[in-house]
Write a structure and sequence with these properties.
Blueprint (H helix, E strand, L loop, with lengths): L3 E9 L2 H29 L7 H15 L8 E3 L2 E3 L1 H20 L5 E9 L12 H20 L1
Antiparallel strand pairs: 1-4, 2-3
Length: about 150
């Protein structure tokens, strides 16, 4: 039987980073949804005396207030077109993207060369000494090549 070298790529990821990115995405998505509700309620002239609408405006005012005055608000029928809310949404999206990129998935790649015959091996403990010797030789050659570069 003839030994064939196969190149196998092994990917390792950090699951803690993935979890942190998901939590950040959820928090920023909820904030974006709340700002979107504010925009739609203002646009369609929702009753500000309603407790839910009043609470929503109260929660979002500190975040939207820093952007008010950049562009003028426009009355649109019974509602108000408030560009400050749209600016806050864009800033929130950019901040979310930047923070998530800090915790981007770092993928480590490791290449392994496996010597085997044409039939796949199911039990790695049943390797022959010949296969192990070929594998060691391939690893040594790889280390020499990396040293030369």
């Amino acid at each position: 039987m003839r030994d064939v070298q196969k190149k196998r790529e092994v990917k390792e990821t950090e699951t803690a980073t993935d979890t942190l990115r998901r939590v950040i995405r959820i928090i920023f998505s909820l904030a974006g949804i709340i700002l979107l509700f504010r925009f739609v309620f203002l646009l369609f002239g929702a009753n500000p005396d309603n407790q839910f609408v009043d609470t929503l405006y109260g929660i979002t005012e500190p975040y939207v207030g820093i952007f008010s005055g950049i562009f003028p608000e426009t009355e649109w029928g019974r509602g108000v077109f408030e560009p400050a809310t749209l600016i806050a949404l864009v800033v929130l999206f950019i901040a979310s993207w930047l923070i998530q990129s800090l915790f981007a998935k770092r993928t480590l790649r490791r290449e392994e060369y496996v010597a085997s015959d044409h039939t796949p091996k199911e039990d790695p403990s049943s390797e022959t000494t010949e296969d192990t010797a070929v594998r060691e030789k391939v690893k040594e050659e790889k280390v020499k090549k990396e040293g030369e570069e």
